[in-house]
């Protein structure tokens, strides 16, 4: 008999006050994004903008854009968001697209479109896409879901895609080439013009992942004309993904996937005409499409406007300049790559960067860890104007703490050495059991993760890392996590 859930379905409803108080209590340990204590996940441009978008979202809270004829207001706002996005990203009158729930759905749709386009126009049955190693995992997810092969090409020492090396991977099954503007890990723009030119020469599609930069780079380019071209102004670019809920500051989830023309976009759609419930047509993955996200995206773009976005970009880049100057003055630290916008990839000299991340986490800063190379990832927004001085002070303190031998550091090293030793002596099936045990009893969601990241290189080499991460995910998704 299966174990019952600890949380049963409520017999009696709570009062409005009780419900809201419960949620507030749940949120007490959440990242303090209003105070600029997080460097990921939330893009905050101030309460005035936030409150306007919230109100717009709530005006369409219950509406569903599944049937555009039922709510013409949503159809109009979505069409205007697509048109404004296309205009911003160098597109002419032919460029069109769809609103999606986020960058992953936009990327999935671009890959699905490429597969269907290749089936129809090239009769390719085993499609492949070529992408740099820094491309977002959503492309791999799309290949896994839709049955394509991902051909991964290493980036150069500057962390940018290598166009000519990507060209050598083209074969009769290639349907799509991918570039990033910028890539998430180091915040650098790939050589879009070179990759798009190669794609066009070989009659391939070319997708630019501008999920992070799509609503930042166009305004930055107005301030810095030397910035690399990345949008539909580049010949050969056939689709672009851009998240409005990132630097567009819209409510989550709102992203756009744009195509150079309507003929290409049609390959994204799904239609089923044999259902007894009626003819079913869907532009993207979602059936139900929340009206609030559409209204929030429209409101953000209309309310902030070009002048407002330019000011937000200027403020964010000023924060970046202050941070990079401070990092340059700390000999134990370095920046990987030359970031083109507001992403900073922080590395270390003679210092465990993950231990530095742990020390900053203990001080109350939310920062993502990265690998290959080991680094910390900081996404900057205008919210960091109020916190950057405090962060720089804590960064100096954290460096000194990470340099000192401590029980935590000793424990980390012992754990890493244990995993290295066990991976060499235990049979595969026993080591697999050990991994599941370690994941099950680890401090999921804790502030210290240096030991876990220290193990990853050896686990990747043994091919066992996937199973451990699956166990972590399973634990995180449980009710008692």
Report the principal-axis shape.
globular
CA radius of gyration is 24 Å
Low-pLDDT segments: 422-426
CATH arch. level architecture of the largest domain: 3-Layer(aba) Sandwich
* Overall structural domain count: 3
| CATH class (first level) name of the largest domain | Alpha Beta
State the major sheet.
Answer: 7 strands, mixed
Average pLDDT for all residues = 87
Q: Please report the number of helical segments.
A: 16
Secondary-structure element string: HHHEHEHEHEHEHEEHEEHEEHEEHHHHH
Q: Largest sheet, order of strands side by side?
A: 1-7-6-5-4-2-3
Terminus-to-terminus distance:
23 Å
Total beta strand runs = 13
Strand content: 5-15%
Description:
The protein is of the alpha/beta class and 481 residues long. The protein folds into three domains: 56-301, Type I PLP-dependent aspartate aminotransferase-like (Major domain) (Aspartate Aminotransferase, domain 2); 306-403, Aspartate Aminotransferase, domain 1 (Alpha-Beta Complex); 407-476, no CATH class. It has helices at 16-26, 47-59, 72-88, 103-121, 138-146, 163-167, 192-201, 217-223, 262-265, 291-328, 353-362, 388-403, 407-425, 428-441, 450-462, 465-476, and strands at residues 96-100, 128-132, 149-153, 174-180, 205-209, 239-243, 255-259, 270-272, 280-282, 333-335, 343-348, 368-370, 375-379. The strands form three sheets. The chain has a seven-stranded mixed beta sheet, sandwiched between helices. It has a four-stranded antiparallel beta sheet with strand order 10-11-13-12. Helix 2 packs antiparallel against helix 10 (291-328) and helix 3 runs parallel beside helix 10 (291-328). The longest helix is centred in the middle third of the chain and has 38 residues, at 291-328. The protein starts with 15 loop residues before the first helix and ends in a 5-residue tail after the last helix. Residues 422-426 have low confidence and may be disordered.
């Amino acid at each position: 008999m299966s174990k019952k859930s600890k949380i049963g379905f409520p017999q009696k409803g709570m009062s409005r006050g009780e419900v809201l108080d419960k949620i507030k209590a749940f949120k007490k340990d959440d990242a303090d994004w209003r105070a600029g204590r997080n460097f990921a996940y939330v893009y905050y441009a101030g309460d005035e903008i936030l409150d306007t978008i919230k109100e717009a979202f709530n005006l369409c809270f219950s509406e569903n854009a599944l049937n555009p004829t039922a709510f013409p207001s949503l159809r109009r706002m979505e069409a205007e968001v697509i048109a404004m996005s296309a205009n911003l990203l160098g597109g002419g009158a032919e460029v069109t697209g769809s609103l999606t729930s986020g960058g992953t759905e936009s990327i999935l749709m671009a890959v699905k479109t490429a597969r269907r386009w290749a089936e129809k126009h090239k009769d390719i049955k085993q499609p492949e896409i070529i992408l740099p190693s820094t491309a977002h995992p959503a492309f791999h997810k799309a290949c896994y879901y839709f049955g394509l092969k991902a051909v991964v090409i290493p980036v150069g020492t500057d962390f940018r895609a290598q166009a000519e090396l990507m060209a050598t991977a083209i074969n009769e099954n290639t349907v799509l080439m991918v570039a990033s503007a910028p890539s998430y890990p180091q915040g650098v723009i790939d050589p879009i013009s070179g990759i798009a030119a190669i794609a066009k020469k070989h009659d391939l599609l070319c997708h630019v992942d501008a999920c992070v930069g799509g609503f930042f780079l166009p305004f930055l380019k107005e301030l810095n004309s030397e910035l690399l071209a990345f949008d539909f102004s580049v010949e050969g670019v056939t689709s672009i993904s851009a998240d409005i809920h990132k630097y567009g500051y819209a409510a989550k989830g709102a992203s756009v996937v744009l195509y150079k023309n309507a003929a290409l976009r049609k390959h994204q759609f799904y239609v089923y005409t044999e259902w007894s419930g009626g003819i079913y047509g869907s532009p993207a993955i979602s059936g139900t499409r929340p009206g609030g996200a559409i209204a929030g995206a429209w409101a953000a773009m209309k309310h902030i406007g070009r002048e407002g976005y330019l000011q937000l970009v200027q403020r964010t880049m000023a924060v970046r300049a202050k941070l990079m100057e401070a990092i340059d003055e700390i000999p134990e630290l370095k920046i990987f790559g030359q970031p083109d916008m507001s992403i900073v990839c922080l590395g270390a000299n003679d210092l465990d960067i993950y231990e530095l991340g742990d020390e900053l986490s203990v001080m109350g800063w939310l920062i993502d860890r990265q690998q290959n190379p080991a680094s910390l990832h900081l996404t900057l927004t205008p919210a960091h104007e109020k916190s950057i001085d405090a962060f720089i002070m804590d960064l100096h303190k954290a460096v000194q703490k990470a340099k000192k031998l401590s029980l935590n550091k000793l424990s980390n090293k012992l754990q890493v050495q244990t995993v290295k030793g066990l991976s060499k002596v235990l049979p595969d099936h026993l080591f697999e059991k050990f991994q599941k045990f370690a994941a099950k009893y680890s401090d999921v969601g804790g502030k210290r993760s240096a030991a876990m990241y220290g193990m990853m290189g050896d686990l990747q080499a043994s091919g066992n890392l996937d199973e451990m991460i699956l166990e972590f995910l399973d634990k995180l998704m449980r009710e008692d996590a």
